[in-house]
Amino acid sequence: MKNNILILTAILICASVGMGKLDKTKTNEVGKSSSDAINPTIITNLDNVLMNPDQFTGYITVEGKVAMVDSAKSMFGLGCDDGCLILPVKCSGEIPQKDSEVTVFGELKKIEGEGYIFESQKVEVK
């Protein structure tokens, strides 16, 4: 797991150097409490989250495809359109099947020295 997070961190750092300005119209409002953001109307593009993780604080909703599943750790990987980057997602409920299209609501957390993990509050399979 640590190796996966370290690899994701390295990819994110390299990719963010070449990435342009984040399109703020696609992000959820920063700093909302969980009770304010239970049904957020703005869905964040996974590519934006992967390329600019420090831009996302508070609760957000992300859409993507399940690229990998680790049921033993209650985790899955949410992949971007081209499949080159994967966001690890910690899931407290039922783990979606690999290749499922999902919408995930939760919060992006930084793990010092390791990278980022998305702690989901709700996962909906499309």
How would you summarize the topology of this molecule?
Elements: H1 2-18, E1 43-45, H2 46-51, E2 59-70, E3 75-79, E4 86-90, E5 101-111, E6 115-125
Parallel strand pairs: 1-2, 4-6
Antiparallel strand pairs: 2-3, 2-5, 3-4, 5-6
Descriptive notes:
The protein has helices at residues 2-18, 46-51; strands at residues 43-45, 59-70, 75-79, 86-90, 101-111, 115-125. It has 126 residues and is of the alpha/beta class. The chain has a single domain, classed as Nucleic acid-binding proteins (OB fold (Dihydrolipoamide Acetyltransferase, E2P), Beta Barrel), CATH 2.40.50. It has a five-stranded mixed barrel with strand order 2-3-4-6-5. The radius of gyration is 13 Å and the shape is globular. The protein starts with a helix and ends with a strand. The model is unreliable at 6-39 (pLDDT under 50).
Q: What's this entry about, in short?
A:
The protein has helices spanning 2-18, 46-51; strands spanning 43-45, 59-70, 75-79, 86-90, 101-111, 115-125. With 126 residues, the chain is an alpha/beta fold. It has a 5-stranded mixed β-barrel.
| Extended strand count | 6
Instruction: Provide the CATH topology.
Output: OB fold (Dihydrolipoamide Acetyltransferase, E2P)
What global shape is seen? globular
Class in CATH? Mainly Beta
Keyword list:
alpha/beta; OB fold (Dihydrolipoamide Acetyltransferase, E2P); five-stranded mixed beta barrel; globular
